[in-house]
Amino acid sequence: MSQSRTVPPLDVLRRGQLAGPLFWLGGDLLAGRLRVAVVGSRVATAAQLACAFAFGRDLAELGIVVVSGGARGVDTQALRGALAANGPAWVAPLAVVPASVDAPFPQENTGLFEEIVARGGSLCSKIAPDDCHTRGRFHARNDLLVQLVDAVIAVCADLPSGTLHCANSAWRRKVPVFAVSWGPEAAHAAGTEALLCAGARGLWPGTALRKAIAALQSDPLGLLTRAPDLALGPPPNAGAATNRPQTFDAVGNAWPCYAPDAPALGPPQEDPPGCDAGLVARLRAELRQAGAHGLTVDELAASTQSDRTAVAATLLNWTLHGGLKRVAGSWYALATAPRL
Q1: Does 217 lie in the same domain as 140?
Q2: Do 243 and 310 share a domain, yes or no?
Q3: Full strand arrangement of the beta sheet holding 177-179
Q4: Average of pLDDT values for 70-75?
């Protein structure tokens, strides 16, 4: 591959800022092109991998820069889908890696990264070529990815997971979040079901994706404020092969909007199942004090002196089971608290 270089963050970031330079390998990003992140589990099912591949292919053919983390599973298939696409509007993808761009991780994807660069795409990282530091690099990668994009699509996720960290980072930065509904009993889907209950917009490749991109181009802030539309129907049969054309248009019109002020679904429960009881008790005490105004994930993690990822996963699970409601963006309040 070609030699890496540094780029000023302001030249490529969509929002926020970074203290140091970004390390870049490959071509420059095309000015004015939308960028959409496709993220998900490393251990996804065959149908979920096919969905990720279809998202990558469809987005690239629409002239959208596919951005992903380069990890195994969903990230890899989204990038492969983008490379498999063609057409007059096609654009190469961007991989945001949790290591140096000169020796990106995982090593098994070296060939994929080389193809991305050879086709005019690029690799990006916060990690300098001589930096061996690894602590927190995956969360830092997720935060950087969110700062680079206009929207995030979560294909599948467990509870807790890096995908949920990415989604929470996106919500904090007012980036629209989309998620695929596989049903509450599906493997590696508890996280995306929680995202949908918390306010993410449901999405599938095909017609629904094209409508979502049109909305993103015309009214990006509207995706953060409009009330839900239709209920999302059952997922179509995705098939196992990721190199076969897939059709997801059966639910083309069924994509509920992101609704940060939507009430929690289902009957309220005192304790969400599968969560640490001590953490739930500490969170409940803080949320009772906050009342209808609610608190953010970061505020709750700080006030309870708890791990932020554990807090985020607990809040999403709690929302899924009806005990919490989203009152604005990434703010949470008890579902029984009166709304102002």
Answers
A1: yes
A2: no
A3: 5-7, 22-26, 122-125, 94-96, 65-68, 35-39, 151-154, 177-179, 201-202
A4: 95
